[in-house]
Design a protein that fits this description.
heterotrimer, A: 8 helices, B: 210 residues, alpha+beta, Arc Repressor Mutant, subunit A, three-stranded antiparallel beta sheet
């Protein structure tokens, strides 16, 4: 009987160990943290870690999480997609027409990120291990508070006085501020408009092309139209109905319909 | 023999120089003077704080800090002859709060004026503290009672007020029209601040002086 | 001759031994570190506190209380090896979360650092509460804005942080030299993104640690 019990216990332990990584997803501080832990299983210097092997391990981790129906945060999935892409780059011969960074460059950067995160973890631990004020060393317990002889002098001049009075006497001259709502293109209006337009936006088109005709020229009207159209576009991206891209800082934003999956 | 000696030394009190350091640190960090018994309770077993205190007292003789006995307890205190360094005379200039300057202006322009009248003009209630403070500054004083029901007290400005603001009489105060002509009204406050609810809040939260 | 000498001494700085006593008293009396300028402001005219501090530091070497430098300020603190005596003075430290500790370390080693850079290093977004809490502890404060698009705010560590961890300057952070030499404090952008502004800013960071 004890043997059976032991065996059972071993099986449980084995299963737990296998699931620990996945089940403990709550305890992870993001995908890099998972990668760092996975890299330890390779038992090599972080500088020599096999990024390809790591990418595979991570993809298994995500698959396993899916199988166990564990909801992974979006950034875990983004990392999985990126690693799958990296894996294909590392495995396939480089395409000479491709201008993007090579698989090796991308892998080297990931290795650097992991090494840097590991270094910061260690640095944090060393920092916290230092002697700390109030725990290992102490400040003067009975500071002799400086006796301050404080004389307060109040200041006000005639101008202050007159302006204060004028402020009171001219209250009726002021009107509360009202926004002039007529030159605001609301987010609701923009969303309504964009929903009508996305059907035609098969090719990439700049944000400015989506502005209503009447709102394109006057700078004030144009500004509000851009803001609400952009917000509406983000909403549609969130709903998975549009795609948005920007090539560089301050480059024009481009939008298009998202092809049905 | 050697293990025995080692064992004994585990229970031996630290050397006197070390005990002195310990008492020094303890008294420095303590938030109140410590009695001999309290010191002893904190030191390793077998220490002789009374002796350590004698050494410590000698070490601080003539320094900027002195070991002092207060009743039956001990503490560090800065040397009495250096007390002047710890003191600092400060003259703080403070601007009158908006509530105070407005109240003062109303008293000046409308005197003699009752509290109810001030409130009506400002559109918000006037806290007791505001008038008290102006009276304490000797810029406002009590005037005669008004011959209306309830015989409310009135407020007027003082000679000190006139001196401070360089006026001969309250009649020298310029009128609103002149203020506007002089361009003094162009500096309009942001419109939001004029909503009466906000001002009422203002007065509650604001300290007398800002 | 005698009256003359007396008159002169009225305007002469006190002798160095006396200045040392004065600085000793001032720093003993204050629980917060005092900058050289603050000390100077309290001393009589013509004093040289920097020199007095050197003498004072030597005098307290090996004592139960030590003179410590924190950035450009000075304070007396008990010797760390006597912490065990001070259980009563120990203050309950809120246990920091792993995220908070890591964020703190990143700010300390990479300062001035933006929120985006912290996130890039940790590979996870920084929750609002984390930085807020470090700021509330007065360990982290806002630095200058970065000269990159959007002019993001940067974070740096404070004097309180240095005081808490017994550091003279950020250069004294454990292992900072090795980390820098290994390139692990570099702000290396992902391949394919070239941000020349970021590189320029890096020089600032180097200044901090050089």
């Amino acid at each position: 009987m004890p043997d059976d019990f032991m065996q059972e216990q071993n099986e449980i332990n084995a299963r737990r160990a296998a699931e620990a990584l996945v089940v403990d997803v709550e305890g992870f501080e993001g995908p890099l943290d998972v990668l760092l832990l996975l890299s330890r299983t390779q038992k090599v210097d972080l500088r020599q870690v096999s990024i390809l092997a790591l990418a595979e391990q991570y993809l298994v981790f995500v698959e396993e999480a899916k199988r166990l129906r564990i909801e992974l945060a979006a950034d875990y999935l983004v990392m999985a997609a990126w690693l799958a892409f990296l894996k294909s780059r590392l495995l396939l011969p480089p395409d000479p027409k491709d201008e993007g960074p090579s698989g090796e460059e991308m892998a080297a950067h990931l290795a650097f990120q992991l090494e840097r995160l590991e270094a910061m973890r260690k640095a944090a631990a060393r920092l916290m291990a230092r002697d700390q004020l109030g725990r290992d060393f102490f400040l003067r317990g009975q500071a002799e508070i400086y006796t301050r002889k404080k004389t307060i002098r109040y200041e006000a001049n005639l101008l202050d006085l007159m302006q204060a009075y004028a402020r009171i006497k001219t209250k009726e001259d002021f009107e509360p501020l009202h926004y002039q709502r007529d030159s605001i293109f609301t987010m609701e209006q923009a969303l309504e408009r964009m929903k009508g337009l996305i059907g035609e936006a098969i090719e990439w088109g700049e944000l400015s092309q989506f502005l209503p005709e009447a709102w394109r020229n006057d700078p004030k009207r144009r500004r509000t139209a851009i803001a609400s159209t952009f917000a509406a576009a983000l909403e549609l991206v969130k709903e998975g109905r549009m795609e948005i891209r920007q090539y560089d800082n301050f480059a024009p934003l481009q939008l298009r319909q998202r092809a049905a999956p | 023999m050697i293990p025995d000696e080692n064992l004994e030394s585990l229970f031996e009190a630290p050397p006197m120089a070390e005990q002195e350091r310990m008492v020094e640190a303890l008294l420095f960090a303590s938030s109140a003077p410590m009695s001999l018994r309290e010191i002893e309770a904190r030191l390793p077993h077998g220490c002789a704080p009374a002796e350590a205190l004698v050494h410590l007292g000698k070490r601080y003789e003539g320094r900027g800090v002195a070991l002092r006995r207060i009743d039956d307890a001990w503490a560090f205190r800065t040397a009495p002859d250096l007390g002047f360094l710890m003191q600092k005379e400060q003259v703080e200039h403070r601007k009158l709060s908006r509530a105070a300057i407005e109240t003062l202006a109303i008293v000046a322009y409308h005197q003699p004026v009752t509290r109810a009248e001030i409130e009506e003009i400002r559109g918000v209630s006037v806290s007791r503290g505001t008038l008290d403070m102006l009276i304490e500054l000797a810029w406002v004083k009590l005037g005669r009672r008004k011959m209306t029901p309830g015989r409310p007290i009135t407020f007027i400005v003082t000679q000190t007020f006139l001196d401070h603001f360089g006026l001969e009489t309250p009649r020298d105060l310029p009128g609103v029209r002149e203020l506007r002509a002089a361009g003094l009204l162009d500096n309009r406050p942001p419109p939001g601040t004029l909503l009466p609810e906000m001002e009422a809040e203002d007065e509650d939260q604001e300290d007398m002086f800002e």
